Amino acid sequence: MLSRVANSIYWMTRYIERAENLARFIDVSSNVILDQPEAAAKQWEPLVRTTSDEKYFREHYGEFTASNVRNFLTFDREYSNSILSSLSQARENARTVREAISSEAWEVLNENYLAVKHAALQGAAAANSDFYTEVKRQSHLFNGVFDSTMSRDKGWYFANIGRFLERADKTSRILDVKYFTLLPSFDDVDTTLDDLLWSAVLRSVSGFEMYRKRYHSLTINRVVEFLVLDTKFPRSIHYCVRTAIGSLNRVGGPEDNIALKQAAAIEAKLCNVTAKEVINGGLHEFIDGIQKELNRLGEAIHETYFARRDELHATPVKLLSATQSQSQSLTN
Amino acid sequence: MTNHHHFGEYQTENFFDEMLDANGVPRQGAEPLLKCINELPPGELVTRQQSIERALMRMGITFTVYGDEAGTEKIFPFDVIPRIVQAFEWRHIEAGLKQRIEALNRFIDDIYHDQAIVKDGILPRHTLEKAKSFRKQCIGLKPPKGVWCHITGTDLVRHSDGAIYVLEDNLRCPSGVSYVLQNRLVMKRSFPQMFADSNVRPVINYPAQLFKTLSSISPDGNPEPTVVVLTPGIFNSAYYEHSFLAQQMGVELVQGEDLVVENDIVYMLTTDGLEKVDVIYRRIDDDFLDPKHFRKDSMLGVPGLLDAYRQGNVALANAPGTGVADDKVIYAYVPEMIHYYMGEEPVLPNVPTYICERDDDRKYVLEHLDELVVKAANEAGGYGMLIGTQSTLEQRQEFAKRIEDDPRNYIAQPTLALSRVPTNVGDHFEGRHVDLRPYVLYGGDSVWVLPGGLTRVALKKGSLVVNSSQGGGSKDTWVIADQELDATDLKVTL
C-alpha cells in the first residue's frame, strides 16, 4: 500500500471518530445540564477547557453560553477541531484515497459531511440532540459499511489503527473532565453514586447498558475500571489499545518496530494496574500520562509507516499531504 | 408527437435533430425511448432529474471549479434525455475513428523519427517546429510496439447537412469518460424501463478494456504488470475521473511524490518499501511530467521518469510528445495524413479549416471574422476563441490583431449549425446543441472504440459552446445495437 494512501486512510478514520466523540461530548453535557439546571454555565466551561483552545473561544465568542459553545464545537469552520472541520478533513482525506476505499463507505462519509455542512447554515438552533445523535449514527454507519465492504488488507488495518487510537484518547478525555466536574469530594470514591449523573456519562459512551450488565450498581471505582481497564467493552481505553495493537501486527513493518513497542508499553501499563490504584494515584495524572503515551504512539506510527518516503526522496519536494500530520494536532 | 404534454410545441426548426426528423417523426431507434417518455406522468421527468442530481452530489461525482473559492465542487450538469446514435451511423463513426487513430499514430512516429511527411512537403517544417506541443526531447523515442497514442477522445459534431465532422483530436489527457460511465449508471437506476426495449450497447467494460490496453504495453511483456494512474492531485479539475478509473481498474492512483526513479527504474513508495512500476497511465501534461527534462519548476512530476522511459523500463500512456497532434494547425493536416500514410480517403471529414499562416486563408479570415469561429492553436476548454456571429466589433479587432501578430497560432472555421437533441427545460423540451466525444483505445494489436461517448450539451438557449467550463452539461449517449452484428457485444465480458 502506498505510504501516502495509508496515511490518508489512518487520518480519515481518526477524524470521523473525532467528530463522533465530540458529538458524544456535547450530548452528554447537555444531558447532565438538563438534570441540574442551576449549574448550567459551569458545565459548558470545562468542555471548552478540554479543547485547549480556550483563548480562541474567548476572543471569538466570549461567554460560555450553551449556544456559543455548541456553535464553537460543532460548526466553526475556522476552528480546526469542530465537528464540521473534522468531517471536512475526514472527507478530504477520503477524497484523496477514493480508489482505495469502497464507494459505499465514501458515500456515507460524503453524505454525513454534506448534511453537517447544511446544518451549519442554520446555526446553533440546528445543533440539537437529534443532530448529535445523527452524527454518531452516521459514524457508526460508516464503520459498519467500511467493515463489511473492505478486504482485510493493509488499508483496513490502518483505518482500524486510526479509529481506535482516536477513540482511546477521547474516552480518556470524557472520563477526565466528568470525573472532576461530577465528583464532589475524594470521600465519595468507592461509595454508591447518585445514578443520574454517572449514568449520563456512561450513556455518552454508549456504555450504560453494558456497564449495568457487568456491575449492576454504580461506583466510581467500577466506572473507572469499565472505561479504562475493561478488555471487552469497545470504547474502553484498554480495549482500544489492544485492538490497535492487533492491527499494527497485521500491517507488519520493520523488524525494530517502534510503533509496536510503544503500543505494547501502553498495554502493559493498563494490564498492571487496578482501578483503585489509578484513583489513589490520581486519575487525572494517570489519564494525562496515557494521553501523552498515545501521542507518542501516533508519532511512532508516522515515523514507521508514513514518513519513510520523505527520506527516500532526494529532492525536498514536500507536498500537501506530507505536511498533513503536522497540522493534525494530536493534542486537541 | 406534437400534441403530447412533454413535447408540446417542440420544434426542430432548421437544425438537424438527433431524435426527430424535420416532420417530427422519431428517427430509427428512438421510438421505444419516445414511447417511454410519453408514458411518464407530467412532472415525473423533472422529479427524476432532481433525484439524479442529488445522487451525483451524494456520490461525489463532481469537478473542482478553478478560480472559485478553494475546494468548490460542482456536479457536471446532466440532462436525462439521452442522445441516440443509430447502429449504421455508429459503424461509420467507428470506422472513421479507427482510420484516424492509425494515421495519427503513424504521423507522430514519423515526426519523431524520419519526418518523411515534412521532407515530402506535405507538412511545412516551420508548422511542425512551431507547434508548442512538439517535444524535441522525444525525437528518437521508441515507445513499446510503436504506439504513441493509446487513449484518444475525438470531438465530433454534426452539421445541418447531416454529416458528422471531426472538430478536434484530444491526444494528451482526454477527460470525460468517467461521466459516460456514471451517466449510464444513474440513467439505468432512474429509468430502467427506458432501456428495456432500446437495445442500448453497454459502456461498462471501458475500465476492463483500458486495463487490457495498458497491460499490453508493459515494457518487458510481463502479462501481469503493475499499472498505475498518475494524477496531478486533488486540486485538478479531473481528479474525480482519475480516482474513478484507478478504482475501476483496481490499480493504485499515484501522485508524483509517490514515485521515485532509481537506476532508471520507476518505483512507488509503499508501507513495505519500494515497488516497481511497469505501466503509467499519466494524466499529467508533458510539461509537468519530469522536471529533469521538461519544466524545471514542476512539483507534480517525477525526476528521471523520461530516462526510465527511454531505457524501456516503464511504459507511459499516452507517450510523451503525443500532444503535437492536438495543435489545431496540425489537426488541419490530418486528412492529408490519412492520404499520405494510408492511401485512403478519410471516412470522417475535418471541419473545413482556414490556416491563418497561409496568406490567402488569412486574408479571407480577416475579411470574414464576423461569420467564422477563430481558435488559438493550443487552447482548450473553450478559451482563446472568437465566435464571430456573437462577437462585438471590439472583440473582432482584438482577434484581428492577434492573428496578424502570430498567424501560426490561429485557425478559423465556419460557424457550424451543430445538431440538437431535445433537452429538459422545466416542464417541456427544447432543442439544445450537442457534440460527441467518443473514446478510442489503441494497444498496438487492436483498436477498440467505446460504443458511446460523452455527449456534451450547451444548456444555454442558442449557445454553441458545450464545454463544462462554459456552462455546458452532458447527456447519456445511446448507441443502438444492431441485433445481429452486435450480438456478442451485448454479452459483456468484464
- Secondary-structure class of chain B: alpha+beta
Shape of chain B: globular
Major sheet of chain B: size, sense and barrel closure? 5 strands, mixed
Oligomer: heterodimer
Listing every helix as H and every strand as E from the N terminus to the C terminus, the arrangement of chain A reads HHHHHHHHHHHHHHHHH
The total number of structural domains of chain A is 1
Poorly predicted sequence stretches spanning 5 or more consecutive residues of chain B: 490-494
The helix-and-strand class of chain A reads mainly alpha
For the residues shown, what is the average pLDDT of chain B?
A: 90
Count the E strands of chain A: 0
Distance N to C terminus of chain B:
40 Å
Helical residues, percent of chain B: 25-40%
Tally of DSSP β-strands of chain B: 22
Name the beta content range of chain B.
Answer: 15-25%
Major sheet of chain A, described briefly?
none
Q: Largest interface, by Cβ-Cβ below 8 angstroms: which chains and how many residues each?
A: A-B, 35 and 31 residues
Question: What is the CA-atom radius of gyration of chain B, in angstroms?
Answer: 23 Å
Domain DUF403 (chain A): 1-306
Protein name (chain A): DUF403 domain-containing protein
Organism (chain A): Aureliella helgolandensis
InterPro entries (chain A): ATP-dep_Glu-Cys_Ligase-2 (IPR051680), DUF403 (IPR007296)
